[in-house]
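Notebook entry, structure prediction.
Reason for the run: the old model in the group folder had no record of what sequence produced it. Starting over properly, with the input documented here first.
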Amino acid sequence: MNLIEQLARKLSQDRRAMALMEKLAGKLSKTKRFKLATEQLISQERPGSSARYIPLARHHNVLFVCPPQSKNAAPVPPQHLWEGYAQTELDYLKCGQDDVAQMLCILNEVGQPPIPLTRVLDLGCASGRMLRFLPRDETSEHWGLDINAEHIAWCQEHLNPPMLFATNTTAPHLPFEDSTFDLVYCGSVFTHISELAEAWLLEVRRVLRQDGYAYITIHTRQTIDLLRTKYRDDPLFSDLLAELNSNFAENNPDGVEWSVFTFGADPNSQVFYDVPSLERRWGRIIPVVAVKEQAHDHQAAVVMRK
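New structure, fully documented this time:
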């Protein structure tokens, strides 16, 4: 601002010039405030802000993205992109294949006739753990979206073609036309969406075709019991169980009638649902066909049909 002040003193006799300098100073001030607000917005430590995504890391503010790699067999992503689903490559691939098989089995149980999989969206796809195993043919259009740009960059390099990928944000918006998909599935995504869950569900409904299906996994009351029993000694769930017990002890939800129990801030929150309450709330947006406990390890699957 020193240069502006010097110019302002020299032109102090000219009111028009002074007005222009004040306007310029105001714009510079607003620019600084905007930069600060932007930096705060993308910070993962600031709870309560929305429309975030996790950007790609840059070296000296420079970024190179590699072209797609043409290979016969899709590679396994690096371990830091496994999202804690496994500890070995074999287990990583197996859990993705098993979750797809479980999802298709549940969908075929409730869908008459069998659900087409020509146009499918994996919302919260990470590095394509499930999407890579979804049945497809030459007519298929399968999309993966995630708020973590590193996941999407890896998928675009190694899994495109045959699949398509894009980075989205935590704001309830899907970059597709109405009635686009036969199936939208979200594995362990709505477990981390609290206040905006219904807004996201409305977006899912919008992009589903008539008679299309949504498959969404959630935490339920039974999830809490499973974490404290079946998965109590599983290292993959140790942090979640510790947080859960700590928040229960501090807030005493056992003595409270609740329909939704949440701790943490999106997108790192943990959200638990009472199933009858959820069926009443979500069923008014998209009819609930079934709720299957333990469909996604400790999570239940909510199946809805538009």
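Summary: Confidence is low (pLDDT under 50) at residues 27-46.
The old model has been moved to the deprecated folder.
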